[in-house]
Amino acid sequence: MNENAKARLAGNLLSLAHKLGLFIAMAIICLPGLWIVLASFRPTVEIMAKPPVWIPQDLSLDAYVAMFSGVGQGGIPVIDYFSNSLIVSITSTVISLAIGMAGGYAFARFRFRAKSSIFLGLMLTRTVPGIALSLPLFFVYSKLGIIDTHFGLILAYVALNVPFTIWLIDGFFRQVPKDLAEAAQIDGCTRWQAFWQVEFPLAGPGIASAGIFAFLTSWNEFALASQLTRSINSKTLPVGLLDYTAEFTIDWRGMCALAVVMIIPALVLTFIVQKHLVSGLTSGAVKG
């Protein structure tokens, strides 16, 4: 075997090992999600079996039928939880993006006093876990009378998401050359027009990335929502999972079915913005 053949063989083996490693990694990552989906169709006996039953023996839609047939009849109010999650997640994401775009653009384009200190302070807020804020927020919200409201939850999620959106969008605006906006202004555009027609489209992948992360954070958050909501007027889907727990039992199949319902909108949204998300994560998150 000549040297070229050996090199090709080594390259093929390396490529195969790389693909096999990726497959194993993805299988490990996806296994919990696959297990949740399968558990939503399986009887409780199979879910709780020891050793685990890896291949389902009896699949049915009973958990989904029970979930939606009980709506409005004393069952789990899935529709209310779903609408609450949509209202809170979409509203907090839009507000976070608006503030994040303004803040990210300001940090990327302007010089002002204590700029680095303010930016560092914003980033340090990300080091505080949400559960540590739940008790102080509960007392503050109680005084303000906004416990168990959409407004209170939206306010908490905006505060949670703004530092990250500012950081991410700032990185993308730094990748957009200032000369482009200046050239647009020389051609007759106002600063506002130069922003929307030149800089905003070029930073679009970063803004889409920030939006999807802000939405998923609000959609999946449990710690704050469990403390700041009390009734079906404001409970979100993650908190609604607790409705499947009783004093001595847990309806694992029903809980997994509701988890699947939670996963579907997140998957759909991620699929819609997938192209922007991938380009956003790979092209502009490194600061210049």
Please, could you describe this protein's structure?
This protein is mostly helical. It has 2 domains: 3-65, no CATH class; 76-283, Orthogonal Bundle (MetI-like fold), CATH 1.10.3720. The protein has helices at residues 3-39, 44-47, 62-69, 78-109, 115-124, 130-144, 150-175, 178-186, 191-202, 204-220, 223-228, 237-240, 252-272, 274-283. It is flat, with a radius of gyration of 24 Å.
In short:
With 288 residues, the protein is mainly alpha-helical.
Under the CATH scheme, the architecture of the largest domain is Orthogonal Bundle
According to DSSP, the number of beta strands is 0
Number of helices: 14
CATH C-level of the largest domain: Mainly Alpha
Radius of gyration: 24 Å
Low-confidence stretches: 280-288
CATH superfamily of the largest domain: MetI-like
Largest sheet: none
String of helices and strands: HHHHHHHHHHHHHH
- Average of per-residue pLDDT values: 82
Which geometry do the CA atoms define? flat
Q: Assign the CATH topology of the largest domain.
A: MetI-like fold
What's the number of domains?
Answer: 2
Name a few traits of the molecule:
288 residues, mainly alpha, MetI-like fold, 2 domains, disordered C terminus
